[in-house]
Design a protein that fits this description.
single chain, 10 helices, elongated, alpha+beta, two-stranded antiparallel sheet, three-stranded mixed β-sheet, 2 domains, CBS-domain, 434 Repressor (Amino-terminal Domain)
């Protein structure tokens, strides 16, 4: 792990809305130790530096965005395609609802795959008949399913590698999260 310069501890701490006393408690050091480090009076040991930076970058207690979960930011109405739905209907549904991707799910709610704009562009370039091709015949792999209590940091990491995430509870899909949902969560 590469740490920021020790001179930045005070600035980062203040951005996290932490007092010296709160940071000291999290790091299991005295408040005066934090004060001396921030003033450049002492150089902390490696272990104390690690504790400070872990507290500043992974402390979720004070950072409002970091306390949000999948349930807080998910879109609850999941628009999906049925397995035997034509790709033309999928395109119409995605356009009408202004979405870039959707899961393919059967009537029982079992996720079979996904349809994305990229997949549809690829299909268009191959002149595949969208009226007579069914979603299940060409769908990509299913989006990962995460629990409702998954924190936003984990969601962000997963969205770096996936177009969307489905939120599942008790074997049922209860929501979907896209990058747009994460960005909207920072509004309020």
């Amino acid at each position: 792990m590469i740490f920021p310069d020790l001179k930045n501890i005070k600035t980062i701490r203040k951005r996290q809305n932490l007092t010296q006393k709160e940071l000291a408690k999290i790091c299991n050091v005295s408040q005066s130790t934090i004060a001396k480090i921030e003033r450049g009076k002492i150089v902390p040991s490696y272990n104390i530096a690690v504790a400070i930076f872990n507290a500043l970058f992974f402390n979720r207690r004070k950072n409002k965005e970091d306390t949000k979960t999948a349930y807080d930011i998910m879109t609850k109405s999941v628009i999906s395609a049925l397995p035997n739905e034509s790709l033309n209907n999928c395109i119409i549904k995605m356009t009408k609802n202004n979405i870039s991707q959707m899961p393919v799910m059967n009537e029982s709610g079992i996720v079979l795959g996904s349809i994305t704009e990229e997949l549809l562009l690829d299909i268009a370039s191959k002149n595949i008949d969208v009226e007579n091709t069914k979603a299940v015949e060409v769908c990509d792999e299913a989006f990962p399913i995460i629990p409702p209590k998954t924190d936003i940091k984990a969601i962000i990491e997963l969205l770096k590698f996936n177009k969307a995430l489905l939120v599942g509870s008790r074997g049922k899909v209860v929501g979907i999260i896209t990058k747009a949902d994460v960005f909207k969560s920072y509004d309020g």
